[in-house]
Amino acid sequence: MLTPHSEAEAATIIRDHAEAKTTLAIIGGNTRSGFGNRVQAEATLSSRAISGIVAYNPAEMVMTVKAGTPVADVDAALAGARQMMAFEPMDHRAIMGTSGEPTIGGVFAANVSGPRRYVAGAARDSLLGIRFINGRGEAIKAGGRVMKNVTGLDLVKLLAGSHGTLGFLTEVTFRVLPVPPTETTMVISGLEDAIASNAMAAAMVTSVEVSGAAHLPESVKSRFIGGALPDGAATVLRLEGLAASVEARAQKLQAILSSIGPSMFLAQDESRALWREIRDVRSYEGNPAKPLWRVSVAPAQGHKLVAALRMQAGIDAFYDWQGGLIWMQMEADPEAELLRHYIKTLGGGHATLLRATDEVRQAVSAFEPLNAVELALSKRIKEKLDPAGIFNPGKMGI
After folding, report:
1. Of 3.30.465.10, 3.30.230.10, 3.40.50.2300, 3.30.1330.30, which CATH number belongs to 7-178+376-385?
2. In the chain, where does DSSP find H-type helix?
3. Beta pairing, strands 325-330 & 315-320
4. What is the pTM of this model?
5. What are the start and end residues of each CATH 3.30.465.10 domain in the chain?
6. pLDDT tens across 92-140, in order?
7. Separation in Å, CA 270 to CA 64, 187, 276, 283, 319
């Protein structure tokens, strides 16, 4: 494994590989090993030794960090100032069965975003600037503006979610926010998926400012916070802020939804533990042979998709993002064609195969297949930034 300790060293390595046309698997902490299409590369290049906090001014709520810095180090520095990454990046180690340390560069390269994403934005929405090495071995600095000299696209947004296929990240600058001092979660018990979807939608159009909305069907509910949730399915709605505000909003939310089903509130520690487990999809850890999908659809369509699939396949699922994000574990067959067919008939979305055996990964595309226009555009961007095609070949199907 190649582990450069500086941007200059990484640039030299990449330049040499580009000239020799030898491919590189790009990784950070490698905690998402096995995710994406199989990469056949001649060497592995890791950013983990390019580490350290470059600048952090809590008053400005902006942090600049080298890409290989462990997320735990970033979290610790932010916690000292009672601040956080608002997009709640998940830790994939439990569901992927991996070890190592997640890196901040990996978070942005994969655009990892958790339960607060639908109110606070995705990881890429917090990203202000980057430094990276392109496929020619050139160091590039990009801020949050359109870089007209390369493809006419915003490189900051473009690199976020590119999974190391367009460049080797060396540094990221991003916004942070204060940690809410108080948190509680309202739990409504016993709702069917469709009714839960309506309840979450009703909560979101009120003025109570819900920061997390998820539905845990009875089949998975007992796997969260040690089985401490009440009997039946659990529809969970998070409230955060100053103590007096949270209390008033909780009372208002309970009154608005009182006719839907019985409810109770979790204490702060239980609430935080629950949302960490939802974020990290802990209900599906320990089953590496069972295909795990991350499905994004319109919130009103999520329960319809699951209902249709349950008629034809063995699946287990729960909902985040007000029903718009579905974590779906298949019993055996990944059912990719069936899943993507129903997504299309329900108005569109994306299905990403997060975890599967090597045999399944060889047969099923991990990412939603691109149409002809999307594929042509993706290839042009790839050719601009990585003309020799040395970065993570095949990972995203390009």
Report:
1. 3.30.465.10
2. 7-20, 71-79, 93-96, 104-109, 117-120, 123-126, 155-159, 193-204, 218-221, 243-256, 268-279, 302-310, 336-345, 358-363, 372-385
3. antiparallel
4. 0.94
5. 7-178+376-385
6. 999 999 999 999 999 999 999 999 998 999 999 999 999 999 999 999 9
7. 32, 12, 10, 16, 19
